[in-house]
């Protein structure tokens, strides 16, 4: 099997490449060359930037992979680029979407692929872009040429991953828990969410690659262990042997403070997000997530310790300031209890 990965050096791409190599596949990664993976000597690498469309096409002109996995496809334009390059040169094109592409609120629980609609909300650009990508690919599935498969993961993490915590890329979580400093948690922290360890997601991609049973369809591939958002920090605390202090702040306030950094909490994370993998397992019964939530978090922490990650001073101060502001608001709110005009309300 000749596998070409557009991307190939990120947390998920790397896990896919390693599992493909274990199967004896010939792996080629296409990326800008800004990161060199530890397994670089075992794969071919083509240095190309998809944003430079002409050079990207030239760099891939001679490539005829059996399967293409596009890990960095974020909108319709990216999808069109990959389809135009490989529609007549490959058997199977696999595109990475996201559960962020769904319209909220969901209509099914657990969420099923074929019962939901795609987001039309432009304010959440990431989800909107993925939704438009999917709409285009759904039409391409009806045409001759390479088969198309869309895979929708949920939040995925693994060794060296930085997509952690409410403030994104927030590796300060470990130091704050160890120092006894509080952490911001949105809402009451009780919204169910689906986290997936990277090797479990990679397993799904590899099982799907070149598999006719998943051609021209869309699948959720993820773990189904039920956790809520505060479990993320509480599990880190259990691993470190310290109980985290959480300060619960409404997600709408966090969005208004910094929509780019925390808007995802309001648009995506404050809905019950439990997803079914029945459809994928029916097509690919071999797929079985192996890592528990705690096992995955443990591996992330161990990788951060090995890398000697320090503290992000900007995000550390931001978290301190958010908590300080919210505590002052809470204290002011509590003064209403002693206000005589409201005395009857608190009896």
With helices defined by DSSP (H or I, 4 residues minimum), what is the helix count? 12
Estimated helix fraction: 25-40%
> Helix/strand-derived class?
alpha/beta
Record the strand order, biggest sheet.
Answer: 3-2-1-4-5-6-11
Shape: globular
Rounded Rg = 22 Å
**CATH-level-4 superfamily name of the domain at 2-162 and 193-227 and 272-309:** NAD(P)-binding Rossmann-like Domain
Instruction: Quote the distance from N terminus to C terminus.
Output: 73 Å
> What kind of sheet is the major sheet?
7 strands, parallel
Strand proportion, as a percent range, falls in 5-15%
Instruction: Report low-confidence residues grouped into runs of 5 or more.
Output: none
Count all strands and give the number: 13
User: What value does the average pLDDT take?
Assistant: 94
CATH class of the domain at 2-162 and 193-227 and 272-309: Alpha Beta
Supply the key terms:
alpha/beta; Rossmann fold; seven-stranded parallel beta sheet; two-stranded parallel sheet; 13 strands; 39% helix; 15% strand
Description:
With about 350 residues, the chain is an alpha/beta fold. The chain has a domain at about 1-160 and about 195-225 and about 270-310: Rossmann fold, CATH 3.40.50. It has twelve helices and 13 strands. The chain has helices at about 10-20, 55-60, 75-85, 125-140, 170-180, 200-210, 230-240, 250-255, 260-270, 280-285, 295-305, 315-335; strands at about 1-5, 25-30, 45, 65-70, 90-95, 145-150, 155, 185, 190-195, 195, 215-220, 225-230, 245-250. The strands form four sheets. Strands 3-2-1-4-5-6-11 form a seven-stranded parallel sheet, sandwiched between helices. A two-stranded parallel sheet has the order 7-10.
């Amino acid at each position: 099997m000749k596998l070409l990965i557009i991307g190939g050096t990120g947390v998920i791409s790397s896990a896919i490449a390693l599992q493909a190599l274990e199967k004896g596949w010939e792996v080629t990664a296409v990326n800008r060359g800004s990161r060199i993976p530890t397994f670089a000597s075992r794969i071919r690498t083509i240095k190309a930037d998809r944003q430079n469309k002409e050079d990207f096409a030239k760099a891939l002109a001679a490539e005829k992979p059996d399967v293409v996995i596009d890990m960095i496809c974020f909108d319709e334009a990216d999808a069109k680029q990959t389809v135009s390059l490989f529609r007549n040169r490959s058997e199977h094109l696999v595109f990475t979407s996201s559960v962020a592409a769904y319209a909220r609120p969901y209509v099914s629980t657990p969420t099923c692929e074929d019962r939901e609609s795609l987001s039309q909300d432009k304010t959440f650009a990431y989800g909107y872009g993925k939704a438009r990508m999917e709409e285009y690919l759904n039409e391409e599935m009806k045409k001759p040429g390479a088969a198309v498969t869309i895979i929708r993961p949920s939040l995925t993490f693994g060794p060296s991953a930085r997509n952690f915590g409410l403030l994104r890329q927030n590796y300060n979580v470990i130091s704050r828990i160890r120092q006894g400093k509080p952490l911001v948690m949105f809402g009451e922290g009780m919204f169910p969410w689906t986290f997936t360890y990277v090797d479990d997601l990679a397993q799904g991609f590899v099982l799907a690659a070149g598999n006719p049973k998943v051609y021209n369809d869309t699948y959720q591939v993820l773990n189904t262990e039920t956790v809520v958002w505060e479990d993320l920090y509480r599990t880190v605390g259990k691993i470190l042997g310290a109980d985290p202090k959480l300060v619960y702040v409404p997600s709408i306030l966090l969005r208004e403070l910094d929509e780019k950094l925390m808007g995802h909490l309001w648009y995506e994370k404050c809905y019950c997000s439990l997803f079914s993998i029945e459809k994928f397992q029916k097509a690919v019964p071999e797929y079985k997530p192996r890592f528990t939530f705690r096992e995955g978090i443990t591996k992330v922490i161990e990788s951060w310790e090995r890398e000697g990650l320090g503290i992000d001073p900007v995000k550390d101060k931001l978290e301190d300031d958010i908590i300080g502001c919210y505590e002052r608001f809470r204290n002011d709110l509590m003064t209403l209890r002693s206000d005589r005009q409201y005395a009857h309300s608190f009896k």
